[in-house]
Structure formats: structure tokens, C-alpha cells
TrEMBL record:
GO cellular component, one term: cytoplasm
Keywords: Lyase
Source organism of the structure: Bradyrhizobium oligotrophicum S58
Protein's name in the database: Putative hydratase/decarboxylase
Domain Fumarylacetoacetase-like C-terminal intervals: 97-261
Entry-linked InterPro entries: Fumarylacetoacetase-like_C, Fumarylacetoacetase_C_sf, Hydratase-Decarb/MhpD_sf
Single GO molecular function: 2-oxopent-4-enoate hydratase activity
């Protein structure tokens, strides 16, 4: 895609987001033909959203577990952006009216203490784990802001940050205080009922594998991860779609509890 088409596609995506209007298929000439083009549009979307969404704060990784790959029909990870305006502390109350169709996922989030820059690639699990500062129990907030996401294809979903709409974080725990992220068992509870559960090992075998995937993926495009950035490593459970009045609680053994209410 040429620069003009990338910009035009990003403008349509950002306009739909600002208006909370479901996004349909982009005009044929503006549709990304592959995920590489989708990520080019995503980077342009990031710049266009800066005034509304705040500073760029990190990344979410989607499709890192079999349950999510099967649900979305995409057999590999994809990433999207996280912005400061979408990051909340546990106990927050959010309005469903601020989303098109809001959903939540149970996640392990990490915050980096060291950069992972492209000149240092390729990255192994052993290298990226040393870059992790803190870990959090997290609720990823996702938004089905599409007329019918099943028909859009991964490149367009990538262009629109792959459903990303923010997160709710539990208290930070130093990485050294968490014995093994792969062994963390997570439970998703909505209105007091258990609706899903999984373990860190469901995320590409280990959440740190997901972080390594992201670092290498970004490095391939000349980008890197920076100290202080947040990374949501992927859902342990299938997406849970919510309605007004729902209360969400994610329990992650060894990481703690994170809660949010939707009105």
C-alpha cells in the first residue's frame, strides 16, 4: 500500500472509533492485503489517536492461546496498542456506552524495566525475562467495534489494534516475587459466577514466550519495546462479552485479584 492509502485507511478507522460507529469493510483499495500492511495502518492510527487516547503506553498480544486462536480463527499471535487513557486501576467503574460492544479477558500483564531494541534481536525467552520489572493480574478490555468481525480478516483487525480498548490492572508485583508465570492459574468471574479459567502455560506455552514473540515481531519492522511500557501477554480464557450491570473479577493465583464494574 502507498502512504496515501495507508493514511486514508487509518482516517476511516479513527473516525469510526471516535464516533463509536461499527466499522464495516474498508473500501477495496484501502483494505490491507496482508498483516504487514495492517500493522502499517495501525502505526498511522496510533498517531491519529494520540490527542484523544493519550500517550502510547504499550501493547496487547492477541491469539496467544488455543482457545482464542480457535475462537477468532487466527492461528498465530497478533498485537495492538495500549494507550494511557485506557489503563485503569482495580475497582474502576466503566460505562458500557463508551464502547460498541465491550468484552473482557483474563490476562497476565508485565511492565518492562529495560528496553528491548531491534539492534539486540533476535530475542529468546531467557533474554526477555530479564527485561520484566513488575507483573500484574489484569483484565484486558476489548471492544467489538465492527459490523461483523468474522468477515473482516486479520489484516483489518490488526489495523484497528486487534480489538484493544484498554485494561484494568491489579497491584504490581516484582517479577522476582512470582515463582513461575506459566503456573499461574486464572479464573474469570462475572456476577459471582465462574465463566472461564486457564493457566499461564496456555499462552504460547509460557507468557514470556509471548513477550519474546512481540519483541521479535517489532524488531522485524525496526521497532522496539521501551522501559516502562506495559505488555498484556494474552488471554487465558475465551473473550467474555458484557452488558450494563456486570461485575468482573479475575483471580490469578500468585498475582492477586483485579476487579471492575460496567454500568
Amino acid at each position: 500500500m502507498g502512504a496515501d492509502d495507508i493514511f486514508a485507511a487509518a482516517q476511516l478507522i479513527v473516525q469510526a472509533r471516535k464516533q463509536r460507529a461499527p466499522l464495516g469493510a474498508l473500501p477495496p483499495q484501502l483494505q490491507p492485503k496482508d498483516e504487514a500492511a495492517g500493522y502499517e495502518i495501525q502505526r498511522e492510527v496510533r498517531w491519529l489517536l494520540a490527542e484523544q487516547a493519550g500517550d502510547f503506553a504499550g501493547y496487547k498480544i492477541g491469539c496467544t492461546s488455543k482457545v482464542m486462536q480457535d475462537y477468532l480463527g487466527i492461528p498465530h499471535p497478533c498485537s495492538g496498542g495500549v494507550f494511557t487513557s485506557g489503563i485503569h486501576e482495580s475497582g474502576v467503574t466503566l460505562r458500557t456506552a463508551d464502547f460498541v460492544r465491550v468484552g473482557v479477558e483474563c490476562e497476565i500483564a508485565v511492565r518492562l524495566k529495560h528496553d528491548l531494541q531491534p539492534l539486540d534481536a533476535p530475542f529468546t525467552m531467557e533474554r526477555v525475562v530479564e527485561a520484566i520489572g513488575d507483573c500484574h493480574a489484569a483484565i484486558e478490555i476489548v471492544d467489538d467495534r465492527y459490523v461483523q468481525w468474522e468477515t473482516l480478516g486479520a489484516p483489518t483487525l490488526v489495523a484497528d489494534d486487534f480489538f484493544a480498548a484498554g485494561c484494568v490492572l491489579g497491584p504490581a508485583l516484582p517479577r522476582a516475587d512470582v515463582a513461575d508465570l506459566a503456573a499461574v492459574r486464572g479464573r474469570a468471574i462475572v456476577n459471582g459466577a465462574l465463566v472461564g479459567e486457564g493457566t499461564g502455560a496456555d499462552v504460547l506455552g509460557h507468557p514470556v514466550h509471548a513477550l519474546a514473540w512481540l519483541a521479535n515481531h517489532l524488531a522485524a519492522g525496526g521497532d522496539g519495546l521501551e522501559a516502562g511500557q506495559l505488555v498484556l501477554t494474552g488471554s487465558l480464557v475465551k473473550t467474555i462479552w458484557l452488558g450494563a450491570g456486570d461485575r468482573v473479577r479475575m483471580e490469578l493465583d500468585g498475582l492477586g485479584v483485579v476487579e471492575a464494574a460496567f454500568v
